[in-house]
Amino acid sequence: MTSMSAITQTSDLTNKAALIPLATERPAYYRMSGIEETSNVSSEFQEERSEVEVEEEIGYEDPFRYVFYRDRKEWADLEPVPQDDGPNPVVKIAYSDKFTDVYDYFRALLKNDEKSDRALLLTAEAIELNAANYTVWHYRRVLLQALEKDLREEMRYITAIIEDQPKNYQVWHHRRMVVEWLNDPSEELEFIAEILSQDAKNYHAWQHRQWVIKEYKLWDSELEYVEQLLEEDVRNNSAWNQRHYIISHTTGYSDPAILNREVQYSLKQIKKAPHNESVWNYLKGILQDLGLSSHPGLLEQILELKETHCSPYLLGFLVDIYEDFLENTLEHHEEVLSKALELCELLAREKDTIRREYWSYVGRSLQTKYGSSDSSTTTSAPGIDPGSASVHQETPCSS
Amino acid sequence: MKHCRKVERSIQEVVSVYKQIHSLPQPTLLRDQHYQYLKKGLRHLSDAYECLDASRPWLCYWILHSLELLEEPVPTAIASDVCKFLAQCQSPTGGFAGGPCQAAHLAPTYAAVNALCIIGTQEAYNIIDREKLLSFLFSVKQPDGSFVMHIGGEVDVRSTYCAASVASLTNIMTPTLFQDTPTWIVSCQNWEGGLGGVPGLEAHGGYTFCGMAALVILGKEHMLDLKSLLRWVASRQMRYEGGFQGRCNKLVDGCYSFWQAGLLPLLHRALFKGGDSTLSLQKWMFEQQALQEYILLCCQNPAGGLLDKPGKSRDFYHTCYCLSGLSVAQHFGNMDLHHELIVGREENRLAPSHPVYNICPEKVAQAIQHFHQLPVPVPAQKEVSSACNTTADHS
Predict the structure, then answer these.
(1) N or C: which end of chain B has fewer CB within 10 A?
(2) Which InterPro entries does the record match to this protein (chain A) (predicted)?
(3) Do B192 and A357 lie within an 8 Å CB cutoff?
(4) Helices (H) and strands (E) in chain A, counts
């Protein structure tokens, strides 16, 4: 859930001033780790000196050493605001010096409602330290608008941040805001595809993708993209979901030609990978509104597959077909019910035992709903619970 | 002790002895180690937690809930310190933020209210500014029934659960607050049977729990296709690992022990309310034993804390949800009808948790009792029509 990514010292995205060496009037703020002074004298006999003291003595300052905001002259006008956790703090985080310094100054900006370029730069530092700080992101957006900043540059910025931390809510929401402000989705599909190429199931990426496509009506090439993903990994459930998303929002499934195309596509994928749950769920998903038993020849095809490509999913699908049949037809009830119950029992006992309780329940439900009126079991009576046979005591407790 | 529980205990004892004789491993909950880890974390966290600096009420909730499941009391002084800290996290405009001086956000609001209800003292209850909280909820309400997580923030189904949870516990529900919310939540149910974060997205355990629990609070769970939801969630239990995956064809993760398995008590109750007479009277519709074994054997850090899966590091989020899932798997039923199934020794037993709020049922009852003595705050005139309160900072 959380990305405890390492905090990088330098970032060319944030403080461009960082790379200007000390020789100029504007001091550098980002410095790489301090100079190690080599010395013949062992460290015990050396006084402890700060990097600053050492540098002043030898007359050389490392242009890449980090300087805290509290030491920066241009920030001297702002009084930092320490965090007030209250008297005896709880869940107290051992913030690094840098973290404390940056956020003390962020709080100061917030308090003064300062809208300036230096504030914008500081938000980038605060974000780098904790990209999940939604208060900082919101403030950044306020600044971007108030200062009328170049949103193309902001797109470049957010692109890099997302590449680095793709599993964060705030970064994606920020990108969405910038795209909306620019009213320009032209980079989105390619960018998201790039992120998905690293993690084909990134939920935020898919969410952003669906939003972009819907908002800007970019449906045209998406089915092709989905097929490409399924080609790479037929078990990618996110891709199957996207397939459903595209088709439902474009042609829909009511056209028999489309529905049949999808059914055939699914059966083809089943033959290639019979134990892929996604495709079985998709097949059921697209047929359930019309009724599984209504699709001509489907039952026969599935029964055929049962011989060579059997799986718990196939058996479950059969239960679903039989159930739909029971729901919608009056003939052959006993026969169909018996087949369905037999499958539930097989699944519970042998083929899908992890779902034993569930399949037993399904069996009992079918029996109750479609069984003949003189069938024996009523499970609400205490003491009788044939569906949940177990090692444990049958008699339920009641107060 | 009730007769049948005695019999169950004796059977358990027999199985236990058998396992010892035959040198089979007895999964043990490392109570002491978890307790030390939690006790320390409640006070101090390393800089590795900088990434959760905008989620500190969550840290309070995850830790306090874990402690209550372990039936470890929180010393009065610490409880009071938590209250004072959460007061610092409360926004002047209502709701709670991820830390002092941050903006209000529904997730830390949910966590803060839950943490305060776990503490359950008058001091804790009094921290919550109910009038401002209601105002905050209206300020994040959208015309289509959904809620954004914070001003200028994103929409997804988590927000509805957070809002419904705090509103119901603190008794600030008004007739219009959740107008159109149930319809919106239901639109998140997809072709798979589960719910996505927003309409159109892939079904996901975390979001499904949030949506279902929110609907239960609002009394509208029957609006969902419960049968297909049941099929979806039952299918999320991994046949080899015993734990749950968050989405179809993805990996097992200890936290889904709660988000996914926790749906089954909600479904059971919903189906029962709907007149279903074929429900089991002893078991949830998932393999309780297998889940407990996954958690105990695969999700414990020997030094304390729980985790996603072997090889991952411990954290307080996983500690909370693995323990919550373990509790769900151990306890069937409610106050009237209670059936326990404890894998391993009796010492592994955790306290039962409320399936909607995920705090102990006594704490839920106590909070509701307290806040229902208070009148529902009157919303400011402009809040009544939520259309006025779209996030002004959006553009």
Answers:
(1) N
(2) Prenyl_trans_a (IPR002088)
(3) no
(4) 16, 1
Residue with tokens 């009420």: B57
Instruction: Using CB atoms, pick whichever of B51, B87, B105 lies closest to residue A4.
Output: B51
Count Cα atoms within 13 angstroms, Cβ side, for A314.
Answer: 21
Alpha-carbon gap, residue B294 to A126, rounded angstroms: 39
The secondary element (H helix, E strand) that includes residue B340 is strand B338-340
In angstroms, the CA A265 to CA A114 distance is: 58
Confirm whether A284 is a catalytic residue: no
Two structure tokens written together for A291? 């009724």
For residue A21, the model assigns a pLDDT of 38
- pLDDT score, position A87: 83
Here the tokens at position A51 are: 């990097």
Beta bridge partners of B237: B244
Residue B300 CA to its chain's centroid (Å): 20
Q: Which residue has the higher pLDDT, A303 or A13?
A: A303
In this predicted structure, what is the pLDDT of residue B381?
59
- Alpha-carbon span A355 to A225, nearest angstrom: 35
pLDDT on residue A183: 98
Q: State the number of CA atoms in the 13 A half-sphere of A119 facing the CB.
A: 25
Q: Measuring CA to CA, how many Å separate A231 from each of A226, B238, B255, B385?
A: 8, 25, 31, 49
pLDDT of residue A86: 86
On whether the CB atoms of residues B90 and B96 are closer than 8 A, the answer is yes
Rg (CA), chain A: 32
A220/A99 Cα distance (integer angstroms): 46
Q: Token digits for B18?
A: 């058998």
Q: How many CB pairs under 8 A join A and B?
A: 258
pLDDT of A242 strictly over 90? yes
Indicate the residue type of A147: L
Q: Rounded to a whole number, what is the distance in Å from the CA of B241 to chain A's nearest CA?
A: 10
A382: helix, strand or coil: coil
Half-sphere exposure of B133 (CA within 13 A, CB side): 31
pLDDT computed for residue A387 by the predictor: 40
Is the distance from CB of A120 to CB of A149 less than 8 angstroms? yes
Contacts of A248 (CB under 8 A, 6+ apart): none
What pLDDT is recorded for position A52? Answer: 67
CA nearest neighbour of A241 among B200, B121, B352: B200
Q: What are the residue ranges in chain B where pLDDT is below 70?
A: 1-20, 23-25, 335, 381-395
Chain B residues within an 8 Å CB radius of A276: 249
Nearest chain B CA: its distance from A265 CA (Å): 17
Q: Count the neighbouring beta carbons within 10 Å of the beta carbon of residue B238.
A: 19
Token pair 């609400």 is found at A380
